[in-house]
C-alpha cells in the first residue's frame, strides 16, 4: 500500500533493522528453560536452555518492586538472542515484548492505519528509530520520522501513526510524517469549513494567557484574543473562564502563512452597541455599577456587556482629585450623565460631576464682592496662592498679599494654611474669584497721611528709575512717584538709584494707595518762601525809614 507518495520498498525490513540494533543472530529463538539457580548476590539467575547450556538472566527482568516472580526449578520462556564466550545470551523481557507485539498485531491487523501510538524513542540505528509504547516496540524509518539528521531524539516522547504490520516478522512500522500530514489535512478541512460556512462551533479552552485564550475545535487550536471576548473591550480572560470550559466561538480570520486561526466569542453574541445607539443620547442620565477603578478614572457597567468610562476629571468639581478610590468603590451604583457616544470606536464616556451642584453656583448664593472670608491655601505658585473657600478656589495674587511690594505669597504662606481674605472680584462668566489680603491690613499710606499733608517737604531715596519717572522710598516702607515733568530743575540723566532726593508732596491718594512728589513744586515753594522773606525784610526797612523821618 502506498500513501503520501511514500513507499517501503527502499526501507530495510524492520526485523532486520531491529536485529542489527540488538546484534541479534538469525538463530534467535524462544525456548522453554528452567531456572537452575538464583544468585541474588550477583543479581542473576542461571537458566538451562537445553543442550546442557545455561544462560545468565538478570533478576531485574523477573522481579517487580524487589519481589521475584520465579524461583529455582520454575519453567520459564526466554529468548536466545546470541552467544557470548559460548554461553547463551537470553532475555525474558524480550519474550514479553514479542508477545505484546504479537497481541498488538492480532488486535489491529485489520484496521492498523487508524491506530495512533504515543511512545518514547528508545534507540536509534542506521535505518531509523525504535519507539516503545505500552511495552510494544515499533520501528520508525528515518524517511518517515520527520526529524533533522542533527536532532538528538532518543528519550523524546512522540506521536506516530501505524502504517504497516508484518505478521511473519512480528514487526510494526509507524510514521510521524504520515500523522503530521493527516493532521494537517484534517485541520485544513476544519478551517476551510469554518471560514466558508461562517458557522458557530463549540470548543474547549486549552490554555489561558494574558492576551487571550487558545480554544480546541475538533483538534484545531484557535486564539480568542482578549479584544474578542466581550463588547466591553479588552478583558482578563482568567477572570471569566478556566481551562476546560466549553465556549461557543466563530472563526473570524485565518493567516495561512503563520497558520494562525483567530476566533471570537463576542461575534457569537448580538451587538449591544446597536441597542445603545438606538436608545441612548448624549445628555441622558443612566444608572451604572462601578466595575473597575484605575488611577486615571473609573470603568462603569451598563448591565448589557457594555462598559462606560468615567474620567478622573469628571468625578467631582474639585480639580484636585488625586485618587478615584477616595470617591467611589467597586460595586457601587451611581447615576451618571452620558457625555459622549462613539459608535465607530464603541466608546462611551460618562460624567458624575455634571449631576452634582456646581460649587461656583453655590458660592454665588452665599458670597458677594467685599465679603471677608476665611479659606485654606491649596497650592502656591510663582504669581500667588490658590485659596479654597466653600469648595471654590480663588486667586490671591502676590501684589495683594501685603502692602510690602517685595513680599510674595510663598514667603508667608504654605499649603494647608488658613488665611483671612477679602473677596475683591467675582467673574461670573469665567468663574474666577480674585482675593485680597492686604486690604485687611493697615495701609502704610493711610498711616503716612496722618502725619503728612500736601506741600509737605520730604526726603527719600531713589529706588528705581523708569522711562516715565522716578520711584522714591520714603519712611515706613512708603513708595512715591516723581514723574519726569516734576523733576525740574534736576536733570534725570544725573540721577542714580540709592541717591537721596528732596521733594514736595503733590498728591496723597489713600483710596488708590499712591503718593506723588514734585521737585518742581519744591523749587516753587522754596522760591515763594524766599520772596516772602525778602518782602518782609524790605517792608521792615521802609517802615524804619518813615519812622525815623517823623521823629
Automatic annotation (TrEMBL):
GO molecular-function terms, A-Z: mRNA binding; structural constituent of ribosome
Domain annotation S1 motif: ranges: 28-95, 114-177, 198-266, 283-353, 370-438, 455-520
SUPFAM superfamilies: Nucleic acid-binding proteins
GO annotation, biological process: translation
PROSITE patterns linked to this entry: S1 (PS50126)
Highest taxon, organism lineage: Bacteria
Chain segments annotated as coiled-coil in the UniProt record: none
Keywords, in A-Z order: Ribonucleoprotein, Ribosomal protein
This protein's GO CC annotations: ribonucleoprotein complex; ribosome
Alphabetical list of InterPro entries matching this protein: NA-bd_OB-fold, Ribos_protein_bS1-like, Ribosomal_protein_S1-like, S1_domain
Membership in a protein family: Belongs to the bacterial ribosomal protein bS1 family.
This protein's name: 30S ribosomal protein S1
Source organism of the structure: Candidatus Sulfurimonas marisnigri
Amino acid at each position: 500500500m502506498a500513501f503520501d507518495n511514500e513507499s517501503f520498498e527502499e526501507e530495510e525490513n524492520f526485523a532486520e533493522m531491529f536485529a542489527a540494533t540488538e546484534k541479534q543472530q538469525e538463530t534467535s529463538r524462544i525456548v522453554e528453560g528452567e531456572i537452575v539457580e538464583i544468585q541474588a548476590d550477583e543479581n542473576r539467575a542461571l537458566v538451562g536452555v537445553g543442550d546442557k547450556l545455561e544462560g545468565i538472566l538478570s533478576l531485574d527482568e523477573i522481579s517487580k518492586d524487589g519481589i521475584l516472580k520465579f524461583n529455582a526449578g520454575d519453567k520459564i520462556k526466554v529468548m536466545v538472542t546470541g552467544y557470548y564466550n559460548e554461553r547463551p545470551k537470553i532475555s525474558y523481557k524480550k519474550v514479553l515484548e514479542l508477545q505484546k507485539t504479537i497481541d498488538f498485531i492480532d488486535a489491529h491487523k485489520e484496521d492498523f492505519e487508524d491506530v495512533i501510538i504515543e511512545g518514547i524513542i528508545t534507540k536509534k540505528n542506521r535505518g531509523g528509530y525504535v519507539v516503545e509504547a505500552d511495552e510494544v516496540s515499533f520501528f520508525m524509518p528515518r524517511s518517515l520520522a520527520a526529524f533533522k539528521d542533527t536532532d538528538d531524539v532518543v528519550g523524546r516522547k512522540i506521536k506516530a501513526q501505524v502504517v504497516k504490520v508484518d505478521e511473519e516478522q512480528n514487526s510494526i512500522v509507524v510514521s510521524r510524517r504520515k500523522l503530521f500530514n493527516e493532521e494537517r489535512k484534517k485541520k485544513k478541512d476544519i478551517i476551510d469549513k469554518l471560514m466558508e460556512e461562517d458557522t458557530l462551533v463549540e470548543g474547549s479552552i486549552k490554555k489561558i494567557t494574558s492576551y487571550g485564550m487558545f480554544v480546541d475545535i475538533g483538534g484545531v487550536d484557535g486564539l480568542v484574543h482578549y479584544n474578542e471576548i466581550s463588547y466591553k473591550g479588552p478583558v482578563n480572560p482568567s477572570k471569566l473562564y478556566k481551562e476546560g470550559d466549553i465556549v461557543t466561538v466563530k472563526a473570524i480570520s485565518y493567516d495561512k502563512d503563520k497558520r494562525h486561526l483567530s476566533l471570537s466569542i463576542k461575534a457569537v453574541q448580538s451587538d449591544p452597541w446597536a441597542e445603545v445607539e438606538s436608545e441612548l443620547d448624549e445628555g441622558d442620565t443612566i444608572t451604572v455599577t462601578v466595575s473597575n477603578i484605575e488611577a486615571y478614572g473609573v470603568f462603569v457597567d451598563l448591565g448589557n456587556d457594555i462598559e462606560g468610562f468615567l474620567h478622573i476629571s469628571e468625578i467631582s468639581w474639585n480639580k484636585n482629585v488625586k485618587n478615584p478610590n477616595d470617591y467611589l468603590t467597586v460595586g457601587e451604583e451611581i447615576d451618571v450623565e452620558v457625555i459622549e457616544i462613539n459608535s465607530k470606536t464603541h466608546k462611551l464616556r460618562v460624567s458624575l460631576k455634571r449631576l452634582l451642584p456646581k460649587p461656583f453656583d453655590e458660592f454665588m448664593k452665599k458670597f458677594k464682592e467685599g465679603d471677608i472670608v476665611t479659606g485654606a491655601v491649596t497650592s502656591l505658585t510663582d504669581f500667588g496662592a490658590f485659596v479654597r473657600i466653600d469648595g471654590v478656589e480663588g486667586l490671591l495674587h502676590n501684589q495683594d498679599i501685603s502692602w510690602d511690594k517685595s513680599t510674595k505669597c510663598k514667603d508667608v504662606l504654605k499649603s494647608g494654611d488658613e488665611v483671612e481674605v477679602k473677596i475683591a472680584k467675582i467673574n461670573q462668566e469665567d468663574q474666577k474669584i480674585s482675593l485680597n489680603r492686604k486690604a485687611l491690613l493697615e495701609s502704610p499710606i493711610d498711616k503716612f497721611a496722618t502725619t503728612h499733608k500736601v506741600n509737605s517737604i520730604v526726603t527719600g531715596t531713589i529706588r528705581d528709575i523708569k522711562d516715565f519717572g522716578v520711584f522714591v522710598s520714603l519712611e515706613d516702607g512708603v513708595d512715591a512717584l516723581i514723574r519726569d515733568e516734576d523733576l525740574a530743575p534736576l536733570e534725570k540723566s544725573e540721577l542714580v538709584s540709592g541717591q537721596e532726593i528732596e521733594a514736595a508732596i503733590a498728591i496723597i491718594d489713600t483710596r488708590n494707595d499712591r503718593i506723588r512728589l514734585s521737585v518742581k513744586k519744591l523749587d516753587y515753594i522754596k522760591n515763594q518762601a524766599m520772596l516772602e522773606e525778602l518782602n518782609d525784610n524790605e517792608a521792615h526797612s521802609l517802615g524804619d525809614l518813615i519812622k525815623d523821618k517823623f521823629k
